[in-house]
Amino acid sequence: MYYRLNGMTQRLTGASTSAYVPQGLKVGLPADPSPMIFASPTKMVSEAASHVEYLGTNKVPDLQKLFQKADGIPVHLKRGVMDKMLYRTTMGLTIGGTLYCLMALYIAAQPKK
After folding, report:
1. Residue 79 CB burial class (10 angstroms; 0-12, 13-18, ≥19)
2. 27-51 per-position pLDDT tens digit
3. Which end of the chain has the lower number of beta carbons within 10 A, N or C?
4. Weakest-pLDDT range from 6-20, 31-45, 49-63, 92-106
5. 10 Å Cβ neighbour count for 44?
6. Cα distance between residue 41 and residue 45, in whole Å
7. What is the CA radius of gyration of the chain?
């Protein structure tokens, strides 16, 4: 049985023997590529507003000042208590997971009685 690609559903469907062309492409197909559907922009630059409205205030300058301050604290702990709790929780879970894996390997390495 032969199959061909359905142009509407983009799925393989059953076809007759005329769909089978062992030499390659059919002669009647155009050699030029089809034009791009979305070639032109939907909004011209001149139509765009001169300023962009954000949903909130820009916090980047404040955060840059905070993270670039030379106070000896690592960057991943500079925002306070929540960063410390997140860091310690992550380290605890990492160490606990490593110990659990080592224990599972040790148990798996023991011969069955």
Report:
1. middle
2. 565 666 666 666 655 555 555 555 5
3. C
4. 31-45
5. 8
6. 9
7. 32
State the SS3 of the chain: CEEEECCCCCCEEEECHHHCCCCCCCCCCCCCCCCCCCCCCCCCHHHCCCCCCCCCCCCHHHHHHHHHCCCCCCHHHCCCHHHHHHHHHHHHHHHHHHHHHHHHHHHHHCCCC
CB count within 10 Å of CB 105 equals 9
Q: In whole angstroms, give the CA distance from residue 46 to residue 90.
A: 49
| pTM more than 0.90 | no
